[in-house]
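Hey, can you fold this one?
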Amino acid sequence: MRLVPSGAETSRCVGESCGIAQPMGACDHFRLMDEATVARYIREIGRGKNAAGDLSREDARSLFTAMLGGVVAELQLGAILIALRVKGESLDELAGFAAACEASYNHLPVLDGGSIPVVIPSYNGARQLPNLVPLLALLLAREGIPVFIHGVTRDPGRVTTREVLDAMGVEPSMSANEALARLATRRFAFMPIEVLAPEIAGMLALRAVLGVRNSAHTLAKMLQPFAGPAVRIVSVTHPDYLVRMREYFTMHDTAALLLRGAEGEAVAHPRREPAIEWAHQGRSEIWKEEATPERLTPELPADREAATTARWIETVLAGEAPVPAAIRHEIECCKRAVAAMVNAK
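Sure. Predicted structure:
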């Protein structure tokens, strides 16, 4: 993966395929961050939830760049990730971390005709409800909106979007060219995070070592994988973090639909009042739909298993079962957001 120095533009398109380039060692671009500097950062952020300080945006970017590059000692890396989990990331830290992430991978080019895609991150999976991210994506594609999903392929104890797509016979895109071809012909592509951004995938994989998620889980959901405009759907699990995302996307970024999704996935909860927030150009507004008993008790798959969910999605796509009202509302919000982006050009 061709890595870009921390001072480079974070929205770019490089390489022969104008997309994902070939892997190369992290040491080709990163220099070792000395342990004394890292220790200073740990002292600042590691004093507990109430006493910890925050890093500046530039320090946060430098630190996360080194972390992604694998040039922070393992013991210190674990200390940083746990300290951030305890205290929570400040807005400046999120902005610095996000800049480091965006500079660590190659972005897909602007789509033919200047179409604005919807980007759906999928990193939570389903434990209780069926995973309906594929239904949302395929219905959007039917509306003529290109949809790019990036995420994990497996998550023990959960049903991932990739597993449901596998059960539907939908193959992943394993290169930029494959993704671009599918977006052009089918208006839909799924790319594993290991292909899109291997360094970020490596940070996500530390969950198996540490036993808990880390900041990379939040940052992966915030990625903007295109060199041009795109609408991102950013889901949170806890209401307090919705406030943080609103602040971030009105102060440091733009063009995101924010919601408390189904079990943290970027699809509306089928049994919850449909409310989605649009953050764009420094402002946010809530798009709601009236909740009725019928809308809050939709027909759903019999269980959460990938095969069952896949077959049920196919019946909905065939018009043999209704689309849950919350997902219909989310589709309308996506169309409205894309229209706002077109008008802002």
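Confidence is low (pLDDT under 50) at residues 1-30. Let me know if you want another pass with a different chain boundary.
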